[in-house]
Design goal:
single chain; alpha+beta; Beta-Lactamase; six-stranded antiparallel beta sheet; 24% strand; elongated
Length: 519
């Protein structure tokens, strides 16, 4: 249906044309005729303008309808979007938030409007949030910034949220910030876990290689890259055969391994890997099937240990074990010889009249024979572990012992006198003794052998004998001198001198005695 205004214009134009036709048939005023013609032209132009206005009005109505439809569609998309969306002003005041945003912030839908977004940011990240707002004053957008959100009533670790923020204009030409949010807490935890696992695998001492079902390498750790002489990024995407060739023993062991992984998801065994440089590595291999969440085959994980050093060490152990067995046989022979020598030595020590003692470097008794026990007046239990000069103090002898220990030169003494401090009733005793150092292979003195022979009675007898001989010699000398005298006075004087010497008297007097006179 046409516009009523346009219909009315058409009616007026028709009436003017009717009047013009009537006037042409009748006599009329030329000026009136011209005025009516001008009016008809004006009405026609007005009708054209009205048609244009109507067309523009229709276009405007259609544009408003389309805009409203687009706005509704955008609102529906905004409200039903799977991720949280928030619109704020430049200061972070929330203008609108969709349903997912309300769920993430844990507030009823619409309740967040008018609140400051800062209130939902964890205090630790609020400085970063403020920095983002300042940054958006000079930038059109910020992509994938991570902020820690703490929703209302949230307990525990804050949510890790990825934020993409766009600086835009509202329909009222006001500047706004459109926040597209995504909760990446679980993804970050998974990434952290994967990062930890990757670091752990990187530190594993064995080579770790993962492949897809087609045998294409998807992961190698640092040890694998070093072992096979490739870079980690170079190995990924290559067939595993590009890293090494496997030699199996027996030759069908490779098929056995693949069948075991296919049937049981696991195999363990050994092989030889030949690297790209031709290096042959004896290896221990563990293969495990990788499966996806649905249980489908996702690839293969290999843990490979280079056994080169272990085999070399095993061979060295076998060699050393053989040498050890041979040395043990020789040692057992030496032990038997030493045991026999010890028995002989024990027999000699216990049946010799000499007193024998073995002392350590500090002159403590380590071993003594029976003769030493009897001669010292102490039991072996009382002697062992105690110092020689603790029991038998003598500064002169201690100095001799020190000199032998320090110089490594033995000493010998004959009839050396010694008085027992704890056995004074024994008086002065006399000893033939030797002190001989015992040295190790390096020539260091490790102990002392002390050998003593009690010659007290022999020394005392010798001294008595020498005294008697001296007396006899003096008597002989007196006799010779008496015989040499020619007068009675000389004989008497010599006799008095001899008596004084023999008796040890200080002086001697001679008295004459007359038998006839009695005086």
């Amino acid at each position: 249906m046409r516009d009523p205004f346009l219909r009315r214009m058409a009616d007026v134009q028709a009436e003017i044309e009717r009047l013009l036709g009537q006037r042409e048939a009748e006599e009329h005023d030329p000026r009136l005729q011209e005025a009516l013609q001008q009016l008809a032209i004006g009405l026609e132009e007005l009708q054209v303008a009205a048609e244009e206005i109507r067309r523009q009005q229709d276009e405007l109505t259609a544009a408003h309808f389309a805009e409203d439809l687009e706005r509704r569609r955008y609102r529906n998309l905004f409200d039903e979007a799977p991720d949280p969306y928030i619109v704020t002003d430049e200061h972070g005041k929330i203008h609108t938030a969709n349903e997912r945003a309300a769920e993430m912030l844990r507030v009823p839908e619409g309740a967040a409007i008018g609140s400051m977004l800062r209130a939902f940011i964890d205090p630790v990240d609020r400085p970063e949030y403020s920095r983002m707002l300042r940054l958006l004053r000079s930038r059109p957008r910020v992509d994938d910034a991570i902020l820690a959100f703490r929703p209302k009533g949230h307990v525990g670790d804050p949510l890790q949220v990825s934020c993409t923020v766009v600086h835009a204009l509202s329909k009222d030409a006001e500047p706004v910030l459109r926040w597209a949010l995504r909760d990446v807490t679980e993804r970050r935890r998974l990434q952290d876990r994967l990062t930890y696992q990757a670091r752990a695998l990187a530190q594993v001492g064995d080579a770790v290689i993962a492949t897809d079902p087609g045998g294409i390498v998807t992961y190698v750790n640092r040890r694998a890259a070093e072992q096979y002489g490739v870079r980690e990024d170079e190995a990924v995407g290559q067939p595993v055969e590009a890293l090494f060739q496997s030699e199996w023993s027996p030759p069908d062991e490779g098929e056995v391994a693949r069948a075991a992984v296919r049937d049981t998801s696991h195999w363990r065994g050994s092989a030889v890997h030949v690297t790209r440089d031709g290096l042959r590595l004896p290896v221990a291999v563990t293969m495990s099937a990788l499966r996806g969440g649905d249980g489908a085959e996702a690839g293969l994980l290999m843990v490979v240990r280079d056994m080169t050093e272990e085999q070399r060490a095993a061979a060295e152990r076998e060699r050393l074990l053989g040498e050890t067995e041979a040395q043990r046989g020789r040692a057992e022979g030496l032990v038997a010889e030493l045991a026999a020598e010890r028995d002989i030595l024990d027999t000699i020590m216990e049946n010799t009249p000499a007193q024998l003692a073995y002392l350590d470097r500090e002159f403590r008794f380590v071993r003594v024979n029976d003769a030493y026990e009897r001669g010292s007046g102490h039991s072996a239990e009382d002697l062992i572990g105690r110092g020689h000069f603790e029991l038998f103090p003598n500064e002169e002898n201690e100095e001799i012992f020190r000199r032998v220990r320090d110089t490594g030169e033995p000493v010998r003494f004959a009839a050396k006198p010694f008085a027992y401090a704890d056995q004074p009733e024994r008086g002065v005793t006399y000893w033939d003794w030797t002190l001989v150092p015992v040295k190790d292979a390096a020539g260091e003195v490790t102990g002392l052998v002390f050998s003593l022979l009690d010659v007290t009675e022999m020394e005392r007898a010798r001294r008595v004998r020498e005294a008697h001989l001296g007396l006899l010699q003096r008597m002989l000398d007196v006799s010779q001198r008496l015989l040499a005298e020619s007068t009675i006075e000389g004989v008497l004087q010599e006799a008095a001198r001899a008596a004084r010497d023999l008796t040890g008297a200080g002086r001697a007097r001679i008295y004459r005695w007359s038998v006839a006179t009695g005086g």
